[in-house]
Design a protein that fits this description.
By secondary structure, the protein is of the alpha/beta class. Helices cover 57% and strands 18% of the residues. Among the domains are: 1-123 and 488-519, 3-Layer(aba) Sandwich (Rossmann fold), CATH 3.40.50; 204-316, no CATH class; 520-552, no CATH class. This is DNA repair protein RecN.
Length: 553
């Protein structure tokens, strides 16, 4: 519900702040007084685009602020999704700067116009000539049928499953596309993988092979030097071991003469143990060294294979080759497994289709069950609004594809004349007829859906007398469940309002300004009398105005 509207520096409005209440609110005023300006300002709060022509004083910013009570609207999820602070009494502010830039805020949090517009659709439904044309759209007509059929929960489940179905369809197509590309690359990837799998890929392998290659390639030199070392260690005349052994024996005779001699003896003894171990290692290595041309060739081939693979894949070490091998293995496996994935996804889609088909059938059955009731209600209410011969032909036709509303295409045809040919609303209904049909439909929707505040902008244009009374009664009945505004030129409609505001202009020294004022009962009598007789008030006009107001109250 719109509880407060504040406008400053907008068009002919200098400063305006007004409070609204629930129920039926009427807004009147002479032609050109500024009712469209008021609507324009409200539209800016709801996300309409603005430009510099909106500024009354060009070097000052325009600020429009609306306070909405939204505790019964179920908008908490919307606020969470857009990271906004939820308040039962939410404040929306719109600023238009002299530079032409525009800013929007919800509870002081900056938002985009897209978010503001989406929120605005849940707050106020401004009924205008443009909005009347929505009546001719199939989605809107089907929404009316679904409201009577109480299909909201069923539609929610259907759309949830349809979203899953559409996602599965995209995933299936993606798998098919991948398969088409992968099949072309599969042979090449398999070749590369097999080549890498044949190579001895492990950390440090190149260093190991290079070391082995150097040993095998220099076997004669190694054998020669090991033999020479063995000779230097063990020759009886000049060998290191015999000489050190002799030294140890000499020093053993001195150990009893002092600790310094004993320490020296122990050191020589330790050296001898180490040298003896080195000598044994030399002999072991000599026994293990032999020329092996075949092994040399194998090591060389492995090294060349690894060098070539590093160059081929443009990497610097074996670890990167291992990563490439694993990636290729995944690709080859995925391609080989695509047929199974495609089959699984196809089965999933088929199962979802069964579910959706069943849901679509229920939706269709519920719709068909209420169409006779809807037809009767529309024709009956329009008869009271001066269209006694109005008739509808409402049918459901099955579609081959799933839509967001099921598989029904609605044929919503109309004729205003008895025996006339049925046709689409936009082709056979006049503007006045469309307005009355829309009013009746909004009244029906108000009983079945939680609608936001509705503002009717001269929906009663072109009607008078009893018909205008009936239109006013419909709007007042609607206001029992929601906040209803009506901008009107008809005293019959204005008299039925729970609250009455007047839009008027005042002439200043330099500027004309638009204002909005809530009328007292006495002021309402005068305003209704003006609407009945014009500027010149007569006693009969005042009496008629009092009669209208008393009858309404």
């Amino acid at each position: 519900m719109l509880s407060t509207l504040s406008i400053s520096n907008y068009a002919l409005i200098n400063r305006l702040e007004v409070d609204f209440d629930k129920g039926f609110t009427v807004i009147t005023g002479e032609t050109g007084a500024g009712k469209s300006i008021l609507l324009g300002g409200l539209s800016l709060v709801l996300g309409k685009r603005a430009d510099l022509t909106s500024l009354r004083v060009k070097d000052e910013k325009c600020i429009i602020e609306g306070t909405f009570k939204i505790d019964t609207y179920g908008l908490q999820k919307f606020f969470e999704e857009h990271d906004l602070d939820y308040e039962d009494s939410t404040v929306i502010r719109r600023e238009i700067l002299p530079s032409g830039k525009s800013r929007a805020f919800v509870n002081d949090t900056p938002v985009t116009l897209g978010v503001l517009s989406s929120l605005g659709e849940n707050l106020i439904d401004i009924h205008s000539q443009h909005q009347t044309m929505q009546l001719t759209e199939n989605d809107f007509q089907l929404k009316l049928v679904d409201a009577l059929a109480n299909n909201q929960k069923r539609l929610s489940e259907f759309r949830k499953d349809l979203k899953t179905y559409r996602k599965a369809e995209k995933e299936l197509q993606s798998l098919i596309d991948i398969q088409s590309t992968a099949n072309k690359e599969q042979d090449y990837n398999t070749f590369l993988l097999e080549e890498l799998e044949k190579a001895p890929l492990k950390a440090g392998i190149i260093e190991e092979l290079e070391e082995e290659y150097e040993q095998l390639n220099n076997v004669e030199l190694i054998m020669e030097q090991l033999s020479k070392g063995d000779q230097l260690f063990n020759d009886e005349q000049i060998g290191v071991l015999p000489l050190v052994t002799e030294m140890r024996q000499s020093l053993s005779k001195l150990v009893d003469f002092g600790s310094n001699y004993k320490d020296l003896f122990e050191r020589v003894k330790s050296v001898l143990i180490e040298l003896d171990d080195v000598s044994s290692e030399l002999q072991r290595l000599q026994e293990g060294v032999e020329a092996n041309p075949d092994q040399l060739e194998q090591v060389n081939n492995k090294l060349q294979l690894l060098y070539n693979l590093l160059k081929k894949h443009n990497v610097g070490d074996i670890a990167e080759l291992i990563i490439i091998k694993n990636d290729l293995a995944d690709k080859v496996f995925e391609t080989a497994n695509l047929d199974n994935k495609i089959a699984t996804k196809t089965k999933e889609i088929q199962e979802l289709e069964v579910v959706l088909e069943a849901q679509a059938v229920v939706l269709s059955e519920k719709r068909n069950s209420v169409i006779p009731q809807l037809k009767k209600k529309l024709e009956s209410d329009l008869g009271l609004l001066g269209m006694p011969s109005a008739s509808f032909e409402i049918k459901l036709n099955a579609s081959e594809t799933f839509m967001s509303t099921g598989k029904d295409e609605l044929s919503f045809l109309f004729t205003a004349n008895r025996g006339g040919s049925y046709g689409e609303l936009k082709k056979v209904a006049s503007g006045g007829e469309l307005s009355r049909i829309m009013l009746v439909i909004k009244a029906i929707l108000a009983k079945y859906e939680k609608l936001p505040t509705i503002m009717f902008d001269e929906i009663d244009t072109g009607v008078s007398g009893e018909i205008s009374n009936r239109m006013a009664d419909i709007m007042k009945d609607m206001s029992a469940d929601l906040q209803v505004f009506s901008i009107t030129h008809l005293p019959q409609v204005a008299s039925k309002g729970n609250h009455h505001f007047k839009v008027f202009k005042t002439e200043g020294k330099e500027r004309t300004m638009t204002n909005l004022k809530q009328l007292t009962n006495d002021e309402r009598v005068v305003e209704l009398a003006h609407m009945l007789s014009g500027k010149d008030l007569s006693d009969s006009a005042l009496a008629h105005a009092k009669e209208l107001l008393n009858a309404a109250l």
